[in-house]
Amino acid sequence: MTMKPKSTDNLNSELSSVSSLQQFLSENEECFQSSDSTAVIAEMIQKKKIPKSALAKKAGMSGVYLYQILSRQRTPSRDRLICLCIGLQATLDETQDLLKQSRQATLYPKEKRDAVIIYGIMNKLELFEINDLLFDAGEKTLI
């Protein structure tokens, strides 16, 4: 039987009144995020039905680099993860979820650079278009 996932607020509440950390950890094992971002990326590729060679091109990376990410030989940086999401035409929620899963900072609209990237993702812009917007705004490009 699958349990309904607990919200962050519920976990915080339980954690604030726990008498045994070990008991809390064991009882909530299925609630903790795994850091297997590679599986999430592979799932997104399958869901979006995009060939890996096309994704590499749209994400501004070589096919070899993408293969190394998918085979866990490389751990992509935050910017590379964002490039992958742009290449996959992921939604903002999907992008934020992948960043969280990868233990990277999510996009934050109070940061000028992140606001430009969010705009690009929300408007399904290509990587080069987002890079042009970043450059015009005086911000560091993604690649």
List the helices and strands and how they pair.
Elements: H1 8-16, H2 21-27, H3 37-48, H4 52-58, H5 63-70, H6 78-87, H7 92-101, H8 112-122, H9 127-136
- Beta-strand segment tally: 0
Rounded to the nearest angstrom, the radius of gyration is: 18 Å
Please report the number of helical segments.
Answer: 9
The poorly predicted ranges are: none
Note the overall shape.
globular
What is the residue-mean pLDDT, rounded to a whole number? 92
CATH superfamily name of the domain at 37-136? Answer: lambda repressor-like DNA-binding domains
CATH class of the domain at 37-136: Mainly Alpha
Enter the CATH topology name of the domain at 37-136: 434 Repressor (Amino-terminal Domain)
* Share of helical residues: 55-70%
Largest sheet: none
H/E order of the elements? Answer: HHHHHHHHH
* Estimated share of beta-strand residues: under 5%
Distance between the termini: 46 Å
